[in-house]
Amino acid sequence: EALLRTLPERGDLVLLDRMDHASLIDGATAGSARFRRYDRSDRSRLERLLAREGPRRRYIVTESVFSMDGDTPDLARLVELKRRHDAILILDEAHAIGCLGPTGAGLAEAAGLLDEIDIVVAPLGKALAASGAIVAGPRVVIDYLVNRARAFIYTTAPPPAHCAAVLAAMDIVQTEPERRHRLARNTERLRGRLAEMGLSAPGRMHIVPILLGSADRAVKISRDLLDRGYFVAAIRPPTVPPGTARLRVSVQADHTDDQIDGLCDALHKIVREEGCAGSL
User: Fold this and answer.
1) SS3 of 65, please?
2) Catalytic positions, please?
3) What is the pTM of this model?
4) In CATH, which superfamily holds the domain spanning 178-278?
5) What is the distance in angstroms between the CA of the first residue and the CA of the last residue of the chain?
6) I want to staple 35 with a disulfide (CB 3.0 to 4.6 A). Which of 14, 170, 235, 244 is the partner?
């Protein structure tokens, strides 16, 4: 909110991916700039919105790893569009920082495009196991936020111990790349097992949505998994569109092969029992 409520001003246009997190949407709506949403599957809509005359400045705002779908935007195309239309590209690396890139800086680093991103937002509550967030960008932008962002000015500063914990986590991220390698391997193992079971798990990242359709089915299977010792949240409308309720698996580097296989075996048994009950 501190960024999107403060930086875009009246007369500007903020363009958000339709699947951006609610916090990004809330930040944009709290500001004075106009905002529009685009569907990244419609490659022409974003370009049409950027080409409109009128706005003083144009902002493109996207997540790097979408929190409910486990997929990523076409970052190279967004960079090309922001160059062509002189827009400002803001990338939220909440689910990618610590998990992707040679030093764990996120998707932009992994894609070799970090220098092309104007402003990076890095919430600290995922891989870094902390709270709060980092905003990284040109010095003039940071100075402006420090002096104008109400959400930054009128709040309590994080305690020194918290800042030390964040720095320690960043040190681990940078010096222990084997954690990212294990995360990638675990993700591949889980997605491979789900594919063998014939379950729909779109995307390719460590957030793995298992599409089940109805909300009731997702909740029931989630509870059945919990009874077997596996906590997998059921995500349902209004968080996701109707008819796309799902289980959301967050793969971790420290998950073992036995844990991943055990989850898949339990899920396979539940789905099989569900099918048998439905045929009675």
Assistant:
1) coil
2) 67, 95, 126
3) 0.92
4) Aspartate Aminotransferase, domain 1 (3.90.1150.10)
5) 52
6) 14
